[in-house]
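Methods — Computational structure assignment.
A single polypeptide chain was analysed. Its primary sequence is given first, followed by the predicted tertiary structure written as structure tokens.
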Amino acid sequence: MDIATKLGVSRPTVSRLLQYAKDQGYVRISIIDPLEDLDALGDQVKQKYNLDTVIIGYSPINEYLEIQKHISQKAADYLHETVQDSDIIGVTWGRTMHAVALRLQEKQVRGVEVVQLKGGISHSHVNTYAAETVNLFASAYQTIARYLPLPVIFDNIEVKQMVEEDRHIHRIIQLGKQANIAVFTIGTLNDDALLFQLGYFSQEEKKLLQSTGVGDICSRFFDKDGHLCSEEINNRTVGIDLSDLREKEKSILVAGGQQKAEAIRAALIGEYANILVTDQFTAQALLR
């Protein structure tokens, strides 16, 4: 209609002219499938960071909550295909992990264990979804959850070490180390980051982490090269060590969004994941 108005001709005339142009090869109409190039994009990220698998979830817009919805569905689907009898699945907590847990499908498997990879107790009013997340994982795989009923970061190293010597706690931590599948997300060091909202850090510690680091996995903070930011804070942290993630058969990082791209890149440089579930916007940023 716009063409007809602009040229001062009828719409049927425009249709005939367009058909003639197509027949002569002057005009081509092609449909671009936004999903078509996701595998190729994933392969590029896989090669650049030496990963075993990269799964790209298509998000129609570059907006964090929308991205989170699509990548958490992809992660849940991948787990449904992957989890087998006798697997030990280590899980963390946070908003993305909770989103994955909500989308899990039940699977009839035997002998699966589900264990928390880091402490999940907080005295803050902010919800970490720690217990709910591990329970949803356990329910999906016909098992019971193994909790780490502790704060993730202690005020003092001596108390943390003493607690870890408890027989029950030690057994849970060891089970996390034995897990052949680890599923985790990544945190930023923005002021609104979940760990900062939970009140674990003094202002001085927060400034230290923000000035030297780019993100955290399992509440262990690292810089742009994937190296630990603070040995002192790391020694007060309860849960799996970053180095243990490198030993997993499947170390699955589920993360996306512009604000997390730098932290994801650093985690991949540090080789803490061998499987990445992300979105196409983040994947493109990782290739730049």
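Note: Residues 64-82 form the longest helix (19 residues).
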